[in-house]
Amino acid sequence: MRDRLPDLTACRKNDDGDTTVVVEKDHFMDDFFHQVEEIRNSIAKIAQYVEEVKKNHSIILSAPNPEGKIKEELEDLNKEIKKTANKIRTKLKSIEQSFDQDEGGNRTSVELRIRRTQHSVLSRKFVEVMTEYNEAQTLFRERSKGRIQRQLEITGKTTTDDELEEMLESGNPSIFTSDIISDSQITRQALNEIESRHKDIMKLETSIRELHEMFMDMAMFVETQGEMINNIEKNVMNAADYVEHAKEETKKAIKYQSKARRLASDDVDNGSMHVSASTAEDASSLLKPFFSGITLVMRINSQ
Q: Mind listing the GO biological process terms from this record (predicted)?
């Protein structure tokens, strides 16, 4: 009898090799989904910061001379938003740059499709939360400008919107306040508030300029990916339909397997070990879409 041990050992090595490849692929996608979760949490954190910013804006606008603690808290929130947004942008850029490499590598089309879809969803959510932040900043600027205009009126100085914008752009509130005689308590309070509001707007505009480039960069990316983003919901629904189709195919595959077993049993009874290759192949081909479909939907629905 021929020694089969070397053949069995070789098969086991091949099986081990195949198993290793699958594990590496799973680790790759697991790492990707972990990164997706980190980005999603960071976006949620920015959304929370934005709500806190809005609350502080309301407090500052409602008080003639808000406490320094509130302004410090607002400044800290703006810094945190900027820092977190830069980290998100870097991670999204890194994922985007990996697509070309993945297409030339051993990644499956399903993996690439999942990665691109997740990247598009995160980019859209990021732009949405940064748009909300930008709108909050713009509203705060307009309302602060309105407060300055009202305080100037209290001092007897009437200005147009264009004149007020000129003062803000120059960074010098004395354009309109230098000739105001602050001999009354009301006038002095008005001048103090004008100066305070002007400083707030200057800090605000610096923050807006710092985030403008990043915001426009991500907004342009999302615009170019608009068609993909609009089809995300459709893709998910199609995936669900695919599972239903896969169930039907699985039923057919089970029938083929049963037929294959019956044929094998008949052949054994007849003294033959021959099994229909076409029947086994049909069963195998019908099972493949079931497992690939289930994997795709589990990945999508888990997000």
A: intracellular protein transport; synaptic vesicle fusion to presynaptic active zone membrane; vesicle docking
Separation in Å, CA 243 to CA 24, 205, 254, 288: 26, 52, 16, 12
Q: Identify whether the C-beta of residue 283 lies closer than 8 Å to the C-beta of residue 253.
A: yes
**Residue 228 and residue 120 in contact, taking contact as beta carbons nearer than 8 Å:** yes
Q: Do 52 and 122 sit in the same domain of this protein?
A: yes
pLDDT digits (tens, 9 = 90+) for 57-104: 999 888 877 778 888 999 999 999 999 999 999 999 888 888 776 666
* Total-model pTM: 0.59
- Which of helix, strand or coil describes residue 122? helix
CATH code of the domain containing 116? 1.20.58.70
Same domain, yes or no, for 243 and 124? no
What does DSSP assign to residue 64? S
Q: Please give the DSSP secondary-structure letter assigned to residue 183.
A: -
Domain that holds residue 213: 37-228
What is the torsional sign of CA 253, 254, 255, 260?
A: positive
* Closest C-alpha among 175, 203, 159, 195 to residue 57: 203
Residues 257 and 215 both lie in one domain: no
Between CA 136 and CA 143 the distance in angstroms is 11
The domain total for the chain is: 2
SS3 for 270?
coil
Q: Is residue 15 part of a domain?
A: no
Which residues, 6+ apart, have CB-to-CB distance to 297 below 8 Å?
239, 240, 242, 243
> Residue 174 and residue 197: Cα distance in Å, rounded?
13
